[in-house]
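Title: Comparing notes on inverse folding

I've been comparing how different people in this forum approach sequence design from structure. To keep things fair, I'm posting one structure and asking everyone to reply with a full sequence. Here's the target:
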């Protein structure tokens, strides 16, 4: 399925590039007819072969692909809504045409001011309609492949009653391939066909190992809501998209949720962060981290010297943390503790922890010990703003009491977080769970504006020394 996604994305990218290149040629034919032939170019070929036009022939299509990337269009190559696809294309084309018009076309000196209007609206019409037409052809082909189950995502239905059968029909309409059913209520005879029943819920781990799937769909039937919540929480650690099939008066349908193309499924693992926002955030993370590592290098050297003078040992402290999609990574910090204080069992740092060096206490107060994590961001392990990554040892304790912690693995962890600026360091598991509420709130309301606000709080903490 991942290979199909990459292939589908590549189709969109190549088609958009070629479309933009062709339209640039057509636009320049119009520019020649309206302007260039009156400005010294005797033939169309001489104008199309000029340096400015040829440079644009390469740069303009690249510009369009980059713009479309930042619009988030390429993030979800399958399951596109026609209305959303049309709207995203319209907004992208509007921004792109306006930018190119003011940067490139306004250099032309036409005979009449009305020529500008003809060029602008002609360019917009060509770019929008041709892009939409070719994108729609690719999307339609993908839908046909999905309906034939050739490119379908595989989904396992948790439930085996009448609601599960209805969920199967709805998922088939959405283009999914049904891997099978798992029975959740042992007291109710399953309604699912015997050949499609893969096991009971307590055998889910074995079922998942034998039958890998892309998504999970929970269709609980008539079991109590408290049991539904328990089952839902237990599914989070698989780090897969989870849908819940809901019926009219189900309390689960009253929350802040989204249905899928009008079919009653709730995407419980999704958040409100737009695809465009995700791409802008990722690109900003990379650029800011590279600049920080470069511009703050004198400060890094000063801190490194201070760490070496404070106590024997390495400058950097390395520790395994659990990050995006539950994958472990090595997180870097400036060392703030004496090296002979390591324990077999990981220990959280207390407020007046004797293991912390005097210089380390200063670094922690101003959060300067976190600065090496810009390298983690540049590598792609972390983001500048995101939920704080934890050690596996503590995650196992947290999820025993707050299984929804696994939701945080759907986004990259951050150097700073809503929990860190509003709650601060946690020296017990109980406090970590209290701080978790802030990170879950961040996850459910992710946006670029929220990231900016968290960064503003973080900068204030660094400048005022209120990090502990």
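Reply #1:
Here's my take.
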């Amino acid at each position: 399925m991942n290979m199909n996604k990459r292939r589908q994305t590549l189709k969109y990218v190549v088609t958009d590039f070629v479309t933009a290149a062709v339209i640039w040629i057509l636009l320049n034919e119009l520019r020649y007819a309206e302007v260039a032939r009156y400005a010294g170019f005797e033939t169309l070929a001489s104008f199309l072969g000029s340096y400015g036009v040829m440079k644009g022939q390469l740069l303009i299509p690249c510009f369009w692909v980059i713009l479309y990337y930042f619009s988030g269009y390429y993030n979800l190559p399958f399951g596109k809504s026609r209305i959303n696809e049309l709207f995203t294309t319209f907004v992208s084309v509007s921004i792109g045409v306006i930018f190119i018009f003011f940067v490139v076309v306004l250099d032309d000196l036409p005979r009449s001011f009305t020529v500008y209007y003809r060029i602008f609206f002609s360019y917009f019409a060509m770019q929008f309609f041709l892009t939409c037409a070719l994108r729609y052809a690719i999307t339609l082909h993908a839908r046909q492949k999905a309906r034939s189950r050739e490119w379908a995502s595989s989904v396992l239905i948790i439930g085996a009653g009448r609601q599960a059968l209805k969920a199967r029909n709805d998922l088939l309409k959405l283009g999914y391939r049904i891997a099978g059913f798992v029975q959740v209520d042992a007291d109710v005879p399953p309604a699912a066909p015997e050949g499609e029943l893969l096991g009971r819920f307590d055998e889910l781990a074995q079922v998942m190992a034998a039958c890998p799937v892309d998504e999970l769909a929970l269709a609980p039937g008539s079991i109590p809501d408290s049991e539904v919540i328990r089952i839902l929480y237990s599914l989070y650690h698989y780090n897969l998209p989870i849908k819940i099939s809901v019926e009219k008066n189900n309390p689960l349908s009253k929350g802040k949720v989204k249905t899928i193309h009008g079919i009653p499924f709730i995407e419980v693992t999704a958040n409100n962060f737009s695809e465009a926002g995700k791409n802008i955030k990722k690109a900003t993370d990379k650029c800011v981290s590279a600049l920080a590592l470069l511009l703050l290098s004198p400060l890094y050297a000063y801190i490194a010297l201070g760490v070496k003078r404070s106590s024997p040992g390495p400058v950097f402290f390395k520790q395994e943390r659990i990050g995006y999609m539950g994958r472990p990574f090595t997180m870097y910090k400036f060392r703030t503790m004496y090296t002979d204080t390591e324990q077999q069992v990981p220990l959280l740092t207390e407020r007046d922890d004797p293991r912390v060096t005097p210089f380390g206490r200063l670094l922690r107060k101003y959060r300067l010990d976190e600065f090496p994590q810009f390298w983690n961001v540049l590598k792609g392990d972390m983001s500048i703003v995101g939920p704080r990554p934890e050690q596996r040892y503590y995650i196992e304790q947290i999820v025993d009491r707050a299984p929804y912690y696994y939701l945080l693995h759907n986004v990259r962890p951050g150097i700073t977080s809503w929990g860190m600026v509003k709650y601060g360091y946690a020296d017990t598991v109980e406090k970590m769970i209290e701080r978790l509420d802030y990170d879950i709130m961040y996850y459910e309301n992710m946006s670029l504006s929220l990231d900016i606000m968290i960064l503003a709080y973080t900068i204030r903490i660094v400048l005022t020394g209120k990090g502990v």
